[in-house]
Amino acid sequence: MITIADQTLSRLVTQTRPHMADKNDVESLQSIVFDHDGTYLYAMATNRFTMGVSRTQLLKADDEPWTATVHRLHVPELAAAIRLLDARPVTLEHTGTHLVLTGESGSRIAIETVQHKQGPLNWRKYLLPLLDEEAARSQMAMTPKFFGAWKNLPAPVQMWSVGDMRPTLIVAADFIGMQMPVRTSETQELTTRRELDAWKAAKREEPPAAEPVAA
C-alpha cells in the first residue's frame, strides 16, 4: 500500500483527465494510468494529441511498484470516491483487478481497473528523453482546441518546442506534458510570414525624449 497527502489525488485526476481519449479513440487510451516508483505516485492520460503526467510524493510506501489503469467509464466513480476521502491522506492499494482507496476513517472504496493486452503507454519513453534537449528557435504550430486541456495547471506554466515538427513541452509544478505539433505546408508558412510582416505596420516611432529643464 502507498499513502499520499490530502487533496493530492484530486489534483492528479483533475490535471490528467482532460487528456484522456474518448470513446471514438483507441480503447487502450481511454483511461487514466496510475503508477508509483516507491517515491512518487504518477497519473497519466493521453489522447495522442496531448499527454499529461501529474505526480505527488508518497508519504509512505509498503509495497513494490505497481501500475493501475482506470477506464474512462470508471473515472466518474473514482472522482466521487476522491470527493469523499481526499480531505485527509489517502492510502491506495492495487489488487490486480481493483484500485482500493482507504481514508483515515477506515472507509474503503474499490474502483475497477482494466488490463490491456499491449499494456499501458510508456509515457517515460516519450517524455523523458525530451528533457535533455534545448529549446529550439523554430516555429510552433498547435491546434487551439486542445489548449483547454492545460487550464487546471498551476501558474507559472512553461512551454517550449524542441524542434520543427517536434512536440511542445508543457511544464508546471509536479506536472509535465506535451502537445503534438500541427503539420504545416510551405504555403502555410508563407502565409504566416506575410501575417507577421503585416503586423510590423503597427510599429510607431517613439517620440523624442524631452529635454531636461534647467533648474
Q: How many helical stretches?
A: 4
Q: Main beta sheet, described?
A: 7 strands, antiparallel
Number of strands: 12
Question: How are the strands ordered across the major sheet?
Answer: 6-2-3-4-12-11-10
Beta-strand fraction estimate: 25-35%
User: How widely separated are the two ends?
Assistant: 77 Å
Report Rg: 23 Å
Sequence stretches where pLDDT stays below 50 over 5 or more residues: none
Q: Pairing-aware structural class of the strands and helices?
A: alpha+beta
Q: Determine the fraction of residues in helical runs and give it as a percent range.
A: 10-25%
Overall average pLDDT: 90
Which word captures the global form?
Answer: elongated
Order of helices and strands: EHEEEEEHEEEHEEEH
Verbal overview:
- It is elongated, with a radius of gyration of 23 Å.
- The protein has a seven-stranded antiparallel β-sheet with strand order 6-2-3-4-12-11-10, with helices on one face. It has a five-stranded antiparallel β-sheet with strand order 5-1-7-8-9, covered by helices on one side.
- The protein has 215 residues and is of the alpha+beta class.
- The mean pLDDT is 90.
- It contains four helices and twelve strands; from the N terminus they run βαβββββαβββαβββα.
Features:
215 residues; alpha+beta; seven-stranded antiparallel β-sheet; five-stranded antiparallel β-sheet; 4 helices; 12 strands; 18% helix; 28% strand; elongated
Summarize the structure.
The chain is α+β, with helices and mostly antiparallel strands and 215 residues long. 18% of the residues lie in helices and 28% in strands.
